[in-house]
Amino acid sequence: MRAKVLTLNDYPDALRLWELYNDSASVMDKATQLHTKVSLYYYFNRPDEMLQCVDSLLTLYPKECTTEQKLAYCYVKAEKLLEKGHYKKLNTWWKSLRKDKKLYREIEKQENFPCSEKAIQGLSDKDDFRMDFLESSSTVPTSYTYPLVLSVTINGTTLPATIFDTGAPYTFLTKETATKCNVQCMGDTIPVKSMFGTSQATTGFVKTLQLGSITFHNVTVHVSLLEKDPIFSGHDALLGLKELRGISALEFEFGKLTLKQKSLRSPLDPNMCFAETGCAFLFANGQNYLLDTGGEGSFSNTPDSVSTKVIDVNGYPVQFFNTYTTIPAAQKSGLLGFPFFSGFKICTLDFDRMNFSGEGYRLRKSYSELMNSGDMIGLDIEYERISKTTDEMGKWLTNASLEMMKNKPESCIQYTDSLLGKYQQELGGSIIYVLNLRAASLAYLGLYKEAGDLMKMCAQVVPDMINGYNKCMALTPFGAQQLSWEQPEVTLNTTFSEKGFLASAEINGNKNKLYFK
User: Fold this and answer.
1) 470 DSSP 8-state letter
2) Which residue in 179, 231, 263, 470 has the most C-beta neighbors within 10 A?
3) What pLDDT band is residue 329 in, cutting at 50, 70 and 90?
């Protein structure tokens, strides 16, 4: 059993290890149970329980641990003590660890150990981390568009341009922001990897970090050592997941983030886990996907040469940009970025249950995709979202299309005139669409000659539109439709038939049957 447990030693195996433990814990010896629980508690966000298991293994069963396992357990213990903000305890344990010279020499050889001796000593006189969560929930406004921006306050200084990035394990500050907020730096050097490459950072100590009505005290962060580090894209900071892992749940809605705290922790019901990097991964269809609000798109590693593909992720159709790879292990991973989160009416990262869920999901399309496909109903459904997430030109294009659909030609013409007056060059090929909308509105009003002139112009680029021109020219002699109301309200007597509702009418003096379908 021990050998089987030890083969499931990486985060993609967390669910299988969870199932194995639930099925077989009763036949495991005590040391094997502890080995299993260290991994499960690590992956499923139970740091206190994990630390207890590590101490039990290293104290009661040292002979049941190989040198590699001892090194791994020292690594995760240092990581979790730092994550929990137990700075004095971390320093005391580190001093005792140094007495085991053989083990300490092995630790010194390790790359990317979670904290340096310099940082441990620098934090040794700091008060422990704590969180003031005065209410059961706190809601914070966010941006409607990528990146997901919100406001935090560090040491009394407000940072309105902070990116909330679930793909970042640590909160990360620019060098300029750290100076402005009087952040104390420890002087160590930490490599921080991103899509821009590897940045150099140092450990910083923040006395208070406020997010909504929540105050985090005595927080460790990363501070970039680079001037104008490109990882921030001109923003003040990245808010990572380290502090938020102690919160019961994060709820994402359009334009807001709600943080919830329960008095009692809910039992585990995992479909996601935390990896060794500190990032959260969702399991779906045999794949593991990084949950990354800081990702501009969603990406999938695949041997498929197609550049984009819609893939089902636990029942949610997701538009992926494909990254070509022939490495089998890499093909089981991907990234779910900002568009995935924004596809839900509401979605939740439940850190108690280690479960991701969502409601009201749609594969969101841009206004241009909806218009190009002729989906005016979809455009109307998405109007609120589009009006808050697109620029002025996009809003005017959307409004012009919807006004035409709703039989408001005068309003449609006003929007097309504004577009042609302000964004003629920016419209590019869409200018034909705008001219066609204007022509249709003019024809609706009976201004067939003016509509025909526009259609003729458009037909030079799109020959099929010559049919519209011909119709307008044929209708020009008749002029605009005129309605004559003899009374304010008219009631029609109808009967229902297979062809629709039937009413009697008189056309050019002749009695006819009209069917309304």
Assistant:
1) H
2) 231
3) low
349 token code pair = 């990262």
256 near 300, Cβ under 8 Å?
A: no
DSSP state letters, 103-121:
HHHHHHH-SS-SS-HHHHH
Q: Which domains, from first to last, does the chain contain?
A: 1-123 (1.25.40), 129-364 (2.40.70.10), 367-476 (1.25.40)
Report how far apart, in Å, the C-alpha atoms of 81 and of each of 47, 94, 120, 220, 363 are.
9, 11, 10, 12, 41
Q: Which of 165, 175, 167, 234 is nearest to 199 (CA)?
A: 175
Per-residue H/E/C for 82-99: HHHCCHHHHHHHHHHHCC
Describe the chain by its helix, strand, coil percentages, rounded to 5: 40, 25, 30
Query: How far is residue 333's CA from residue 287's CA, in Å, rounded to a whole number?
Result: 6
Summarize pLDDT for 104-155 with one digit per residue, the tens: 888 887 777 888 899 999 999 999 999 999 889 999 999 999 999 999 999 9
Give the position of tokens 């502090």.
Answer: 243
- By the 8 A CB rule, do 202 and 222 touch? yes
Nearest Cα residue to 398 out of 423, 415, 420 = 415
Measure Cα distances from 197 to 163, 192, 194, 231, 337 in Å.
18, 8, 5, 9, 19
Among 180, 241, 167, 169, which residue's Cα sits nearest to residue 206? 180
What whole-number distance in Å separates Cα of residue 369 and Cα of residue 343?
15
User: Model confidence over 214-243: pLDDT tens digits?
Assistant: 999 999 999 999 988 888 989 999 999 999
Long-range contacts made by residues 72-77, C-beta under 8 angstroms, separation at least 24?
Answer: 73/38, 74/103, 74/107, 75/110, 75/113, 75/114, 76/38, 76/42, 76/50, 77/51
Contacts of 96 (CB under 8 A, 6+ apart): none
* Helical spans, DSSP H, in 25-158: 30-43, 47-60, 67-84, 87-97, 101-109, 117-123
Alpha carbon separation from 194 to 156, 224, 424 (Å, rounded): 28, 12, 39
Spatial separation of the C-alpha atoms in residues 362 and 384, rounded to whole Å: 14
Q: Are 274 and 290 in contact (CB under 8 A)?
A: no
Which of 176-180, 208-212, 431-435, 475-479 has the least mean pLDDT? 475-479
Structure tokens at 278: 């500190």
Give how far Cα 139 sits from Cα of 169, 211, 248, Å: 21, 9, 14
Which ranges in 217-318 belong to alpha helices (H)? none
- In eight-state DSSP terms, residue 157 is E
Chain length of the chain: 517
